[in-house]
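Structural prep section.
Before we set up the soaks we want a predicted structure of the protein with pantoate in place, mainly to decide which crystallisation condition to try first. Input record follows.
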Amino acid sequence: MVIGLVPTMGALHAGHISLVHRARKECGLIIASLFVNPIQFGANEDFDSYPRDQERDFGIFERNGVDIVYAPAIDVIYPDGFGVTVTVSKLTECLCGTKRPGHFDGVTTVVSKLFEHCQPDCAYFGEKDYQQLKVVEQMVNELDLPIRVVGAPVIRERDGLAMSSRNTYLNETERRIAPALFRTMRTVAIRLSRGAELESQCEWGNDALLAAGFDRIDYFEVCDGQTLERARGYRPSLRIFAAAWLRETRLIDNLAADEID
Ligand code: PAF
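Run finished without errors. Recording the tokens verbatim:
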């Protein structure tokens, strides 16, 4: 029987559910993991305040056809004295990797353990965390793990805001500003497809987000969709990546440069 794993940190939304549904179509047994992984949060990040509601999450998993919820205790994943870090180089040295040092080491370390504990044939990750998806793909390829990594499209609110557990942090005003992230990326995608110059569009994107009300921008970049290297000239395989702050909330999003419908 084909085993599918949907790794999550809980605080489930339609994006997670789309992964479960995709796994349901392709696998005979669905495991969803629920573990808020401390080592992928930086010292000043939101590990303590990260939304947790296991009862709600268990209900959502059950109603959507998950067969097993794997919600390990912290010492099952990180026993006393745990001293291993799984690192993927290069792909982690840009975008969120630069802004959140150690974050991807935390992700690849926990995902390795989840893979070992659940022994999936397929594992499902959302493209909302596109860099994470590419990093996990590289880890699986280079460690020769017999796992098919499946990336699923970003699920958006009606106004374009990418679904994220962190959207619950936004107050009313911030929630109104937040869709500008997607709108700005989309405008840049359209302009690039019409021949606009790449670098000036990234600058424009940065300024447009500040003008829309974002407090600070971590990055607004156009990169190769596979290597994540910053692009020099336009081609359809490129992706636009943005990370920006509304007060204490950091939102990220990305869009294929040719995804302009
Ligand atoms: O994307 C997430 O929710 C997390 O980074 C993951 C993959 C479950 C690892 O903790």
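Observations: The longest strand covers residues 216-224.
Flagged for discussion at group meeting.
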